[in-house]
Amino acid sequence: MSRSTVNGISHSELLPHDFREMILKVLKMFLGLVFAGWIFLWIIVPTSTWKYHWSPKLYSNTYSTYFGRQGTNILIYAFPILFIAVVGCIYLHFRQKKHYTGSRSGILSSLIAGWKRPVLVQGPLGVVSGIEFTFGLMFLALLVWSFSMYLHVSFSQLKVPHSEKRWEAKLDSVALRFGLVGNLCLAFLFFPVTRSSFLLQLIGLTSESCIKYHMWLGHIVMVLFSAHGVCYLIYWDHTSSMDEMKKWAKVGVANVAGEIALLAGLIMWITTFPRIRRRMFELFYYTHHLYILFLFFYMLHVGFSFFCMILPGVYLFMLDRYLRFLQSRTKVQLVSARLLPSEGMELNFSRNPGFSYNPMSTIFINIPSVSKLQWHPFTVTSSSNLEPERLSVIIKKEGSWTQKLHAVLSSPIANDHISVSVEGPYSPISMNILRYESLVMVSGGSGITPFISIIRELIYQSNIMNTSTPEILLVCVFRNSLDLTVLDLLLPICSNVSDFSNLKLRIEAYVTKEKEKPTNHEQRVIRTICFKPHPSDVPISPVLGSNSWLYLAVIISASFVAFLVLTGILQRYYIYPKDKNTFKIYSWSKRTLLHLLFMSFCIVVAATIPFLINKRSNSKAGKQINNLDLPTPTVSPSSWLHNSEIEMESLPWNSLSKATNVHYGKRPDLKKILLEINQMNVGVVASGPSGLRHEVAAICSSGLADNLHYESISFSW
């Protein structure tokens, strides 16, 4: 038994409920106050008050023999966010034991639901909710404020050299300020793509939303940095100082490093535009790894002291990336695969029963026999409560990677074993769907996959936990009748549910390319492939164990404290005795490389130790898990949807068949369907093609029905 448990109960569950709730509220308020203070810091930094009053006092000991200027920057910019990260992980450790439920009422819940209504539907940004629009405007206002204040302070003290014109001196100042504001955006850029980040869990963001915010920030960063570079090129050209492009100064900015970083950023930026990204995804995927060069040379360009301003996001991203690397080195057990007539695939993995996750979680999969380098994200369709020993994903045959995977699985040569590595799964805390009286889920094509996990979780809540669940209306659109076989996967093969009659489920399926029911059912057989376990394969388990948030808090705090201690020792006993802060022996670039080396070393050591501890316990638990013995169906239950004369021996499949209506040769009238719902509190979720999601969002935001609350869970790359 783990030391963190007593009789199978974790320490967080031993605390009284009221006391635990009080701790959670206090921690949440404290986190909000610290974050507000950090944002306020970014607001006052561009002002003259900061430059002429606060900054001289804070940096009065710039040439300290211990930390120097970067010590003050670490204290001001890095420490608050990393402190929030540690406290946030502790908060999530106490909160993760709460069941997947939600409050049906409450003033705060109703207020938040109102702000989630879409305010922008069409346009390059896609569906934008009221919360996203408001915070987006606030962030743009922060950028405009910072840029204008930087220029105001700079122009008020502008000194024009004799060899320059006034507009050239102003252009020099403008170019520098573009870089400073771009640095502000860069400070936020890596938070959304830190998969194990406390932010994703704490705020309740989906992985799709995080990608969207990362893309928005990335575009702004590259616009500002491109303007920064172009302005300096114009300035150097007009002042006959193009030799500046070749300089790598020992003290101050290294121009060559900045040019390399900008070039790497431009290559990444070009491949992110939709036409290139969607048509040549592999080009986008591989070129995006240039972020390593971008960050490395950006750090050399500005020096570590200035880099401390964006250190929190980069530090947490580096830690997350290393944890993902550790998890990806372990091969997981692929138990079986099911091939659908629609050329879809379901992969079923063995899972540690103690590992829980929420519906709509995302997992990244790498299959070396298909591609050794590519990792692809998929929505988890299984329920951790309903299927305690299995994790499933559904993959549609679309791109080159999925085509190769389908060819491997459907090969006539038997595959006894397929090597697979995973990262994740990652999920928000809860979608809070139980607060609705009715839930409408609209999907197109493979967009149904997130809803499978929701339906399976609601089956568990209604039939095993006897929890009151909302009425479910699933409106799914398919191109042909073969795609209907994906409805077979709404119910798991192995579960302890023999009936889901307590769940009020209605399915309206629309087949757009066929005008009538097909008469041939012979091709509607789902083929199941079972794989032999390999001795080195283990069930999917959390990389840091069941108390992963607590371990993550320890890793962040221990690694950062160790980094500060080693940095102080380096500065005091190695650099300062030789250099005396003259930078003749150790230039900015050399010191930056030493700081980067120490930071990487501390992260690796602090993360590896708890990983190895949990890896040993996970391997012991994996040996005790029996291999799943999945039955192989001879006929697809989807044939029941076409009035086939088949004896329905299974009550769950019988209930599913009765709940399903199939419409041929037409598309759903979404406006009519949504406006005819009479319940007062209706959640509406859309997943699939952008046109379908935009249509649903437009109906919910039209004001024709106040009872419709749109929940955005899908984002099209």
Automatic annotation (TrEMBL):
Domain spans labelled FAD-binding FR-type: 327-432
Principal subcellular localisation of the protein: membrane
Keywords: Ion transport, Iron, Membrane, Metal-binding, Oxidoreductase, Transmembrane, Transmembrane helix, Transport
Protein EC: 1.16.1.7
InterPro entries: FAD-bd_8, FAD-bd_FR_type, Fe3_Rdtase_TM_dom, Fe_red_NAD-bd_6, FNR_nucleotide-bd, RBOH/FRE
GO biological process: monoatomic ion transport
Top EC class of this enzyme: oxidoreductase
PROSITE patterns from the UniProt entry: FAD_FR
Name under which the protein is recorded: ferric-chelate reductase (NADH)
